[in-house]
User: Fold these one by one.
Assistant:
Number 1:
Amino acid sequence: MISYNDPDRMPDPALDERLARWFRDRYGMQRIYLTTSCSAALEMAADILDVGPGDEVILPSYTYVTTALAFVKRGATPVFAEIEADTCVMDLADVARKITPRTRVIVPVHYAGISVDMDALLSLTRGTSIRIVEDAAQALDARYKGRALGTIGDIGTFSFHHTKNLSTGEGGMLVLNDPALARRADVAFEKGTDRQAFISGEVDHYSWVDRGGSYGMASPLKSLLLEELKNLDEIQEKRRRWFQLYMETLQGAPLGLPRIPKYAEPNWHIFAVRLASQAQRDVVIRRMRERGIQTVFHYQPLHRSAYGRRKGYDRTPLPVTDTVAATLLRLPLYPSLEEEQIRQIAGALRKSLEETP
Ligand SMILES: *Cc1c(COP(=O)(O)O)cnc(C)c1O
């Protein structure tokens, strides 16, 4: 038969199967959707859960814009929870205080690949209809009590952006953990149509059935992803070594080192320390730059952003978030660094700290 579409241009289903198998074998992920980004995966999650006006979504303020925007775009109200200073992930006592009858979704962000205490979070939502969407953008290959992050909530979302541990330039993934949501997820992924039911022969044509988007990753990036995954163990091993070398060489320095809770096996995504004040951090960044080393701060809390202030989100006090945002400093952490460079950076940081008032 002469096919209607050019067969040379059709995506290869075997590629999807190989990727699905890889993620299933390594992490136990049962159903994945490769997306254009983690932001797209978060928007798809909001579609799947039909979040809308009147719904509240609890998330940290100390996160990337799209953790909130994916839900805000659909008219939901973000409710910002506090973080813990030493892990930089959501403070569950504050989450518990912020749950109301309107709470539809809670979004734990596994900052730096360090897990939120998922059992404690799930115990807050047990017996309710509140859904959990793990923003695991930074958490590929990280675990909680042995379970892969992104597989514990109803939905998990990942990023393959060039700043993350594993990259396709831009890219992402949605992991669906509640099989009851599969059909809705297929529709959201297929641009609001039942094309997936058509492909599997359940319907004889496909059409518009619900909300959705153009979320799918392009085939060339899938091929790239499959290649990149072969490097994952090597990448992770290097990152682990550099992270631990920072911990050793900065032991006893006048700064706050990251705390890794017992239940968390991180993926060494970010090495961040906390300094005494914003003024001290500004001086340290300058002194480090003079020594030829770039160090950076991280998020402006969303409740303090221009949009957040316009919407009045800054009326909720989040003092720990404000302090972390003002004092957190990230050091270079990537596989191609060398042991000598890590020692040099740690030494320069100690010297720079001595030079601050
Ligand atoms: C990187 C990141 C995102 C966005 O990922 P993209 O793939 O760039 O869309 C979302 N949330 C968090 C916590 C991130 O770190």
Note: The first strand starts at residue 32 and ends at 35.
Number 2:
Amino acid sequence: MPFRVPLSSPDIEPADIEMVNRVLETPYLSIGPMIEQFEREWARYTGTHFAAGVSSGTAGLHLAVIAAGVGPGDEVITTPFSFVASSNVMLYQQATPIFVDIDAGTMNIDPNRVEDKIKERRALGKRVKAILPVHVFGQPCDMDALCDIASRYELKIIEDACEAMGAEFKGRRVGTFGHAAVFAFYPNKQMTTGEGGVLVTNDESWDRLFRSLRNQGRDDSGTWLRHIRLGYNYRLDEMSAALGLAQVRRLDRLIEKRARVADGYTRRMAHVPGVQTPYLAPETTRMSWFVYVIRFTPAVDRNAVLDALQAEGIPARPYFAPIHLQPFYRDLFGYREGSFPITEGVAQTTLALPFHSKLGDSDMDCVVETLSKVLAARKHSR
Ligand SMILES: *Cc1c(COP(=O)(O)O)cnc(C)c1O
């Protein structure tokens, strides 16, 4: 059956198309005026001194880890409940991601376990260089606790804010807490550039390093075939930057539209037995909804509900599969079921519903009615 509602969708308006078309009428398809303008407006939006556009969120995380001085044998504290990229970037540097289990409510890294883990690794003689927290699904991590730990142990914080553009912790924007932060613009995110990402920092030397690394290790003299370090081609092209510029100018509206959809779901789901709607911490003064993830009570067989929804034409996704249980992480590090029980418990009982800015009332009715029907049918069949 074709899906009755798309799982995700970019929000593209004629003004966005116009911006991209304008680029195509110029000779500047890369390294032109659009990326500069986009970076200026992104830095202003986030509230940082600097922003550097890159070709993906993953590329941005990689460069931030390099800037933090993470190299072979080093360790970085992070969460196993995330998209695989937040941990892979350590492997790119021959460093090791050290996982810390999550808080069952926010599904973000649990700061109470972070300090114990740092002490444990140091006692083993390991070099912990940084903490890489992920603001999962658009809800900020407990940045008070993490910043306190980072300053006491002299660690850098790199925020993976790829799912949390515009979110606020106690009134302060994510992306302004760490030494650097990364946002991403894949088409299912709150705003898109197709592929793309951006690195923000208040440290001018880090910003200069990002610009060199993304551009094949060139220095800022602009000499085309002079390379002063090992770099990459992580540039953001001008079409993508133009789309980003058009989208960031209405990002607050895009975030509001998603919040309206989230509220619509939560209202409709309030009396569906077996379903818990997303938990928001009191410190989350602004949620930036990336996905809408419900949790089932233990009696519900999540996988069976997922299959039944698909059969009814409603797409849904388990979100996330724990990183430590990915086949190559098991092979590399010997992780098994039970290594991070809270992460695994959350991963087994959650489901992301169709969610995007243009989801209408009738779409939400359709999703929630189908979900209720599926849950009721399973209850009676047992
Ligand atoms: C989207 C995302 C990224 C970056 O993804 P790209 O596809 O490389 O832009 C990184 N971390 C998290 C948690 C994400 O959701």
Note: Residues 361-381 form the longest helix (21 residues).
Number 3:
Amino acid sequence: MSEEVLANYASVRAAIAAAAREVNRSPDDVTLVAVSKNHEVDRIRPVLATGQRAFGENRVQEALGKWPILRAEYPEIRLHLLGPLQTNKVREAVALFDVIETVDRPKLAVALAAEMRHQNRRPECLIQINTGEEPQKAGILPADADSFITACRTDHGLPVVGLMCLPPVNDEPSPHFALLREIAARHGLGHLSMGMSGDFDVAIHLGSTQVRVGTAIFGSRI
Ligand SMILES: *Cc1c(COP(=O)(O)O)cnc(C)c1O
């Protein structure tokens, strides 16, 4: 089981490097965030042992059950929050995560700013953009992105480093990635979190700096 995960991990690493070189980018400019949601600590350990340090989780509660133990052994772990964040979980999220990728509404921005002051801890923030304008999906609509990004940085003083998107499952992802890059460029934001198991190569071609890969490493989630 761990051999399978390690083989998957090695192929994902190789595919990231290949995709970067195809567009004359350095593989080092693309961070692999290994998405370990729904997988237990025992399945994560072998990947940690290879030197992987950036991991992504969707739920605060699940992450709290898994990562404090692992972090005691590997202090350099960088944990990314990828799922929607409720304001009643902001305290735990600010304490646990190093990167919060899902800043998606004014109320959350206000709560995060207050909690960061309170804890004197400033996880990096990415703003999630709903590039496909899907009603059921979290994220700021593209038309509202400029004003929201500016408000997060200037009014709330959040440490915004970039943008994240999750294209509609049945869409060709390229236009979504291109749109995200365009919005980020307008604001001088350097971090683009885009690309998952099925499309990280396309995302890297379009400038992704962090890919979020779960299934291709850990296998399917039940
Ligand atoms: C689950 C998830 C991923 C990983 O998706 P895979 O297709 O398993 O690679 C990436 N990003 C977000 C926001 C997710 O929720």
Note: The first strand starts at residue 31 and ends at 35.
